[in-house]
Amino acid sequence: MKQLLFHIGADRYALRLRDVVRVLPLLELKRLPLAPEAVAGLMDFHGQSVPVIDLSLLAGMAPGQQHFDTRILLVHYHAPDGAPHALGLLAERVLGIAEVDPAALADSGVRAAPFLGQVASDTTGIVQLVEPDQLLSPALRAILFQPEAAAP
What we know:
The protein is mainly beta. Helix content is about 5%, strand content about 45%.
């Protein structure tokens, strides 16, 4: 299974490549007054406003640092009702794509953050999967993805 590797702080994480729509350079974001701290802002993606989340803040760490290889990972996000949305993830030090044997993935048994899934180990250490559909709390999801108003 192919995965996109990146860092949140000093630790390595991964997204399944099937969940990634695009890897974008760090763009200037529209700040959202009074938005929760983890919301980095909005980006324009082909005329669509897409919320961008700072993964470091969402993980309870200091804000993500801007490095040469910091990217915005545009992912498919599916709300519990099944509605699809585009969501940007601010990720530090994107490393690239790696092949991970599905048999090497295991449940860590630790559920500190609901969006973190299985783990795998390799010669450079542990990498943990990020589950995009589990990233947003119900309150944050309600702020970012409000139902469209019905037409009059």
